[in-house]
UniProtKB/TrEMBL annotation:
Name this protein carries in UniProt: Inositol-1-monophosphatase
Gene3D superfamilies: 3.40.190.80, Fructose-1,6-Bisphosphatase, subunit A, domain 1 (3.30.540.10)
UniProt-listed Pfam families: Inositol_P
InterPro entries linked to this entry: IMPase, Inositol_monoP_metal-BS, Inositol_monophosphatase-like, Inositol_monophosphatase_CS, Inositol_monophosphatase_SuhB
Protein family (similarity comment): Belongs to the inositol monophosphatase superfamily.
Length: 263
């Protein structure tokens, strides 16, 4: 498998889909939204974008599997699986806020080998592939070099369902507000992760995420020299759906703080 060539093809597909989303953003009717669950919205833009991605990605690898947010198609593959979020940051999109992205990852035998995240409003295409570095618009990127929490800017997300851990989370946020340069909540986990990869954020943490939210971004962070863990400091973040992505220098300090609140 030529991962670099494949990545270039995926970038073209993602860019084409991004053009569709941009066009719809200019004329979007918020009355056309649907609810999948509590505070969990979807629109025809999400669904159509996913259909476009699936139709084109399906042509690249025979017998490939898919894991998709809008369930356009979900199936197991023999070796490979695409994990797709056609519009990460749907709530932002619906409200006209400029932070949302397309996220695509390819897994081979349950290991990530390719990731593409396209932040549409800034026109920034982040990507990497097995054996290669991480890039943003053809420029190589790396995580930050800030050595500790007190010199760092962090990103996080707020749960919009399953509020049973809300008190612990608020206590953790309170601690981080006092010990860092600040916290940012962009509303798109895929965007948070690529901003860690290029050094804009020094770390990102969130729980209750889905694989399509983080599959592409986590791989790009790792390829850019960063580290990704779950809240316990283990590497099984895919199944726990807890993400701690850092520049590698903050990992121990941040995970220690998280453990104090999430025993």
């Amino acid at each position: 498998m030529n991962y670099e060539l494949l990545c270039n093809k995926v970038i073209s597909i993602v860019r084409l889909t991004g053009n569709f989303i941009r066009k719809e953003a200019m004329q979007f009717d918020a009355n056309k939204i649907e609810y999948k669950g509590l505070n969990d919205m979807v629109s025809y833009v999400d669904k159509t974008a996913e259909q476009k991605l699936v139709q084109n990605l399906e042509k690249l690898i025979p017998d490939v599997g898919f894991l998709t947010e809008e369930k356009t198609i979900n199936r197991e593959g023999k070796t490979y699986k695409w994990i797709i979020d056609p519009l990460d940051g749907t709530t932002n999109f619906i409200h006209g806020l400029p932070t949302y992205a397309i996220s695509v990852a390819l897994y081979e035998d349950d290991k990530a080998v390719l990731g593409v995240v396209y932040e549409l409003n800034r026109g920034e295409m982040f990507y990497s592939y097995k054996g290669g570095p991480a890039f943003m618009n053809k420029k190589e990127i790396q995580v930050s070099v800030n050595p500790d929490l007190k010199s760092s800017l962090l990103a996080t997300g707020f749960p919009y369902y399953q509020f049973d851990k809300q008190d612990q989370y608020l206590q953790l946020l309170s601690e981080m507000m006092q010990k860092t340069h600040g916290l940012r909540r962009m509303g798109s986990a895929a965007t948070d992760l690529i901003y860690v990869a290029c050094g804009r954020f020094d770390a990102f943490f969130e729980y209750n995420l889905q694989p399509w939210d983080f599959a592409g971004g986590c791989f790009i962070v790792q390829q850019a020299g960063g580290e990704v863990y779950n809240f316990s400091g283990g590497d099984d973040f895919f199944n726990t759906r807890e993400i701690v992505a850092t520049n590698g220098k903050l990992s121990a300090e941040l995970i220690e703080a998280i453990k104090r609140h999430f025993a």
